[in-house]
Amino acid sequence: MNGAGKRIVVVDDDPSVRRGLERLLKSAGYRVTSFASVQDMLTGADLDSTACLVLDVRMPGPSGLELQAALAHEGMRVPIVFISGHGDVQMAVRAMKAGAVDFLSKPFDAEELFDAVEQAIQRPRPAKASKRR
Amino acid sequence: MLLVALGYYVGASIGFALKFPHVTPSVMWPPNAVLTTTLLLTRPRRWWIYILAVLPAHLAVELPLISPSALVLGLFVTNCSEAMLAAGLLHWLSDQPTRFDMLRRMALFVGAAAVVAPLVSTFPDAALVSALRGERYWSVWLTRFPSNVLAELTITPPLVMLITARYDRLRTVPLGRFVEGAALAFALLAVAVVGFGGPPGEAMGGLWSVQTPFVLLLPCLLWSAVRFGPRGLSVCLLVTVLLAIRAGMLEVGVFTMPHREDGVLALQLFLTIVSIPLLCMASVMEERRRTSDALAERLAFEEMLSRLSNAFVHLPSSETDRTLETWLERVGEHLQLDCLILLEFSGTGDAFVARSWNAATPKPGLLMFASDDFPWAVAQLRREQPLNFTDPDDLPMAALGERAILRRHGVRSGTVLPLEAGGRVLGGLAVIRFAEAPAGQEQIESRLGLVGEVFASALARRETEDALRASEGMKSAILASLGSGVAVVDRKGTIIAVNDSWVKRTDEAAPPAASEAGVGDNYLAGWRQVAARVAHAREAVAGIEAVLQRRRESFALTYPSSSSPKSRWFQLSAVPLESSDGGAVISQTDITDWKHAELEAQRSREELAHFTRVSTMGALAASLAHELNQPLTGILSNAQAARRFLQAKSPDLDEIRAILADIVADDKRAGEVIERLRELLRKGGSQPERLDLNGLVRDVVKLVGSDALIRNVQIHVVFSADAPTVAGDRIQLQQVVLNLLVNAMDAMTDCPREERVVTVETTTNEPDGLACVSVGDAGVGFDPSKHDQIFEPFYTTKTQGMGMGLSISRSIVEAHEGRIWATKNTGPGATFRFTLPLAAPRVP
C-alpha cells in the first residue's frame, strides 16, 4: 500500500477491538499506536506525525466527535476515520460534515478499513500555519 | 310526777301501817324505795322535779302523825338523801342501773342501794330523831336501818322491773308459763298461810315446828328464782315479805316473840338474809339463761348462715334470683326484721335493682331504680361506706332526696351495708325499720354483715358465670361461623371437640381415615396410615406431634388433595392448646380457590413482568446491538489480521495464538450478551434459587453498560463486602434492578453530562436479616407527596413508558417478602431502595 510505514493512531475503549485493529493495520504495514480513551491519546500521541486517526465514537469520557470538534478548533487537521457500534445516519452525517474521511459501522471488513485509512493518508493536509483563528 | 307522789304517799302510808302491835318503828319503810326506783328510772338532771313532787306527799303523810314539824322536814331530807345516794351510786357504777339480769348488776344494787345508802343515811336520820324527840340514838338507828334495807331490797327491784317490763311480749309467752306462774302464786300463798299462820291444829300438830315456814317457803322462792328469774323472784319476795309482816302484825306465827322488838328484828333479819342470796342466785340464773339463749340464738343464726352459703354454692346463675328472694325472706324472718332489701347495681352502674322482703307483705318485691334518685346513698355505697341512721333527718343535707323518699315511706331508721366482692361494690344490703330500733342493734348489724358477704359472693359469682357464659357463647359462635374445620385434640391426638365446619367439611380435606375422624377418634391415626406413601402426611404427623409435645409454637402445612380427581388444596394448621393437660387446636381449610387465585395472580404478574421486560429490552435494543457489535468487531478484525499474518513467509505463531485467544474471548463475550438477553426475554415460572446479590446486580449493570455509555451516564457500583445471598427468582430480581437503573438514567436525560451519575449499592443488614439494593440518581427527583403513587400501575412522568416498571418491581419485591421505597436525595435526584430477606445459611 502507498501509505505503508505511516503512523496510524487507534482510539477505542474496547481492548479486544483495539488489539484486533492494531494487528490488522500492522499486517498492512502501518505503524500503529492505540489508546483506550481520548484522554490517553491526547497525552500519549504525537498528532503532528499521525497520518490517520481511527476513532471510536462512544467512549467513556470525551467522545470521538468531541475530539474531532476540538481538533478542528485547534486547527489540527488530522484525517479521521470514525468507527461506531451503532452509528446512526445522523451521527455519520455530522461527522462527515465536520471533515471526517469515513464513518465505518462495526463490525466492518478489513478492506473497508484499509480503503478508508488509505484515503485519509492520501488526503492533502494543509500546513499547520493555516490554523484558523 | 303525780304517780311518783302518789306512790310515795301510798308507800309511806303502808310503812306506817306495817307495824307490829305496840312497836313504834315500821318493819319496812317503802317510800325511800319508791323514790329510789323513780330516781333509777330517770336522768339525774331531772331528779329535782321528782323530789319536789314527793315533798307534798311526805308532808301529807307525816305531818298529822309526827311532831315536831322540823323532824318531818329533816326526815324528808334523809329519805331523799338515801334514795339519791342509792340511785347516784348505781348510775355511776352500773352499766345498766335498771337491770338486774347479771350477777354484777345485782351485786352492785345490793351493795349500793341496799347496804351503803341506808347505812349512810340512817346516821343523820337517827341523829335527827334522837335530837328532836330525845329517843336513844342507837335504838333509833337499829330500828330504822333494817327497815330501810328491807324496803330497798324487796321493793325497788320488783318495781323497777315491773315498770321496765315489755308487756307487748306477753302475747308471745306460751300458755304453760301462765299456768306455772299461777301454780307458783297459789303455792306461795298456801305456804304463807300455813307457814306464818301458826300451828293449824291438833291433827297436824306432830308435823309442825318453828322451822316449818322456812322449809316450805324456800322451795317456792327457789322455784321462782330458777323458773322466773329476778323478776319473778323479786315479786315473790315482796309478796312473802308482806305476808310475813302481816302475820307478825296479827301476832301469829314464828315471829311473835315475848319482846316484840326482837320479833320485828328477827323478821327483818330473816327476810334480808333470805333475800340477798336468793336475788343473787336469780341473777346468776338469769345471766346463765341469757348466755345460753344468746348461744342458742347465735348457733341458730350460724346454722342459717351456713345453709345460706350452701344454697349458693352449686347454684346455676339462672337460679340465683329466685334463691336470693327465698333467702332474703328467711334472713328477714330469722333476724326478726321489718324489711330487708337487697340492692344490686346494674352493669353500667346507673341503675340498681332493689329486691325487697317486707314482714308485712308475704311476697318479695322487685323494683328498679335509677342511681340518680339516690345520689348520695349510691355514692356512699360505692365508697364502701355503710349507712346508718336512726332518723332520716339525721342524714346530711346532700341526702335531701333520700330523706324525702324515706319519710314518704314512713321509714324510722335503717342500715345499709355495701356488698363488696373482689374489690368492687356490687350493691347493698339494707335493713329498714318502720318502728323504734330495738336493743341489740350492733349484733344485728354484724350479722347482716355476714349475710351480706354471702349475698355479695353470690352476686359476684352470678356475674362471673354470666360473663363466662357470654364469652363461651361468643367463642362457640365464632367457631361455628368459621369456614375452616376446627378440632381440639388432647395430648395424644384424640379429638375432644369439633366445630360445625369440621363435621360438614369436604372429605378430601384429609386422608381417608382422618377425614372421618370425629370426637373420640385419633386424628393422627389417619395421617399415619398414609404416611408411608404420601410425603406431606409424614410432614403433617411430624409437625402435629411437635406441637403436641410443645416443641413447636405452631405448625402449618399446605397440601394438595390426593384422592380427588380435581386438584384441590388444603391448609392444615396446629397450635398448642393453652391447657395444663396439653393438646392442640387443629384447623383445616380448603384453600383451593385461594390457591387458584394465587396461581392466577402469579401467572398474570409473570406475564406482565415479561411484557415489561420485553418492552424494556426494546428500549435497550440499540445499546444491546452495540454490546454485540463490540465482540463481533474484535473477532472480525482479529480473524482478518490473522489471515494476513498467515500469508507471510514465516508467520509469527505466538501472535496467531494471541489472536485466537482474543477471538475465543470475544466469542464468549458475545455469547454471554446473548444469554443475558435470552434470559431476560424468557417467559417462565418462578424458579426460586439462592442468588448472589452482588453478582445479580453486576450482570444487570453490564447489560445497561452500553446504554449508559450512549447516554453519557456513569454508573458507580459499590458492592457489600458480605456478599449477601438471597433466595428468589433471578430473572424477576434482575428486572427490578434493571427497572431502577433505566429509571435512574431516564431521570437524568436533561442533566448536564458531568452530573449524570447513577450510584448502585448493595448493603447487608445482618441483625435484621436483610439485604438492600439502592439505586440513586442525580435527576429530577420526585414529589414526596406522590411517593405511594409512583408505585401504582400506569403512573408515569415519562413521555414514553407505560408506568408499569415500579409497579411490577413492587409486586416482585413483595412476592419475595421484601419492601421497596423511594427517598428524595438531599442533593438532586432520588434514591430507590429495596430490601430482601437474607437467605438462611446453607446447611453444610
Descriptive account of the structure:
The complex is a heterodimer of chains A (133) and B (844). The radius of gyration of chain A is 13 Å and the shape is globular. The model of chain A is unreliable at 128-133 (pLDDT under 50). In chain A, strand 4 (80-84), helix 4 (89-97) and strand 5 form a beta-alpha-beta unit. Chain A has helices at 15-27, 38-44, 64-74, 89-97, 110-122, and strands at residues 7-11, 31-35, 52-56, 80-84, 102-105. Chain A has one domain: Response regulator (Rossmann fold, 3-Layer(aba) Sandwich), CATH 3.40.50.2300. A five-stranded parallel β-sheet of chain A has the order 2-1-3-4-5, with helices on both faces. Chain A starts with 6 loop residues before the first strand and ends in an 11-residue tail after the last helix. Chain A contains five helices and five strands. Chain A has 133 residues and is α/β, with parallel strands linked by helices. With 844 residues, chain B is an alpha+beta fold. Chain B has four domains: 2-287, no CATH class; 314-468, 2-Layer Sandwich (Beta-Lactamase); 482-590, PAS domain (Beta-Lactamase); 597-837, Heat Shock Protein 90, CATH 3.30.565. Chain B contains 22 helices and 18 strands. Chain B has helices at 2-17, 30-41, 47-62, 69-93, 103-133, 137-164, 175-196, 212-249, 260-313, 320-334, 375-382, 400-408, 441-481, 500-504, 512-515, 523-530, 535-548, 592-647, 653-681, 693-710, 730-747, 805-815; strands at 339-345, 351-358, 361-370, 387-389, 413-421, 424-433, 485-489, 495-498, 555-560, 569-576, 584-590, 688-692, 714-718, 725-729, 757-765, 770-776, 819-824, 830-837. In chain B, a hairpin with a 2-residue loop joins strand 2 and strand 3. In chain B, helix 8 (212-249) packs across helix 9 (260-313). The termini of chain B are far apart. The interface between A and B is medium-sized, with 24 and 30 residues.
